[in-house]
Amino acid sequence: MLNSVATELHEVMGEVRARTLKLVAHLDDAQLEAVHSSIMSPLAWDLGHVAAYEDLWLNHRLAGRELLRPGLAELYDAFETPRAVRGDLEFLRGEELLAYLDEVRSRSLEAPLRDGGELHELVIRHELQHSETMLQTMALAGLLPPRFEAPTLSGSGLDMVVVPAGAATIGAAAEGFAYDNERPRHAVDLPEFSIGRVPVTGADWAAFAEDGGYRRREWWSAEGWEWVQDVEPRAGAPDSPIVHISFFEADAFVRSRDARLPTEFEWEKAVSSGAISGLYLVWEWTASEFNAYDGFVAHPYREYSEVFFDKGYRVLRGGSYATHERVASPHFRNWDLPQRRQLFAGLRIAR
């Protein structure tokens, strides 16, 4: 008889899969198989990758069984097949894709439970993160699911609260599931700072744009100014967080308001102290570059985090309205390149 932990994890796996398929239920095969953006995968590739990852970690590495379809290992390896080439690959489509998802899942439900279900949780969160990536693709293509809308927000992102100086505990505890880049937990001393009570809103952003925000060189870094020459200005609903902005845009906005972006440690302290609200509405760009905490140990594979350290990626904290609650946490560290706009990302100001 399955123990209660295994039963719960299997139920969650079923709920997550149902959610994933519901998010793409409004799309036809052509929309699932198309390349909608050069920086994103075809949606059908993402679905196949989710199944292949599950087969690798639960059925092969945990249960010690042969991969269901060994020939798909390279096809769905994110490092062997970068996004730029995935649209040219013979990835699974239609009924064959759905059958693969189902067959892998049937095998996974027989995999043993070890270390409190750590690898089961890894697979669950991997699917949840990929479903958000798929929503990013749908947003770029104008194909978001019906009634998928940005949340409303009360107040202005220019209203600030003070966080007193003192120590902050950063990172995830040693117990429970966390990604390797969230550990080890450690203390840092931070001076007093102010931070936006809520994320910057569409109304705040409109004032920036109307004030020449996309034309005034003095508000942009050298890299940001070069980048902004080839993009269209962003806009958003006045009472919603501004979303789908790049780090460069976030940086220009805070400069225009004689402010700055918070560091990721400031953001985490502000959350743990209860000083700020409007959490998990949009990913929030921080001033921090993505690197390792002192004492970092790669786990369970170095390609999750380590290969991205010190490569110019910027940290985003929190979560978004496209992020499942199981993924969002005060410790989770998202990251992307400063020019990227596809994330459901906004900002919070600091001084």
Mean pLDDT, as a whole number? 97
Form type: globular
CATH class of the largest domain reads Alpha Beta
Task: State the fourth-level CATH superfamily of the largest domain.
Answer: paralog of FGE (formylglycine-generating enzyme)
Q: According to CATH, what is the topology of the largest domain? A: paralog of FGE (formylglycine-generating enzyme)
Distance between the termini: 56 Å
Which strand order does the major sheet show? 7-6-5-8
Low-confidence stretches: none
**Annotation, overall tally of beta strands:** 8
Order of helices and strands: HHHHHHEEEEHHHHEEEE
Number of helices: 10
* Total individual domains: 2
Largest sheet: 4 strands, mixed
> What fraction strand?
5-15%
| Rg, Cα atoms, Å | 21 Å
Helix amount: 25-40%
The computed structural class is: alpha+beta
Give me the CATH architecture of the largest domain, please: Alpha-Beta Complex
Give a brief outline of the structure.
The protein is built from ten helices and eight strands. The protein is of the alpha+beta class. The mean pLDDT is 97.
Helix and strand topology:
Blueprint: H1 4-23, H2 29-33, H3 43-62, H4 83-86, H5 94-108, H6 118-141, E1 160-163, E2 166-170, E3 186-190, E4 193-196, H7 202-210, H8 222-228, H9 247-256, H10 264-272, E5 283-289, E6 314-318, E7 333-336, E8 345-346
Parallel strand pairs: 5-8
Antiparallel strand pairs: 1-4, 2-3, 5-6, 6-7
Distinctive features:
about 350 residues, alpha+beta, Four Helix Bundle (Hemerythrin (Met), subunit A), paralog of FGE (formylglycine-generating enzyme), four-stranded mixed β-sheet, 10 helices, about 35% helix, globular
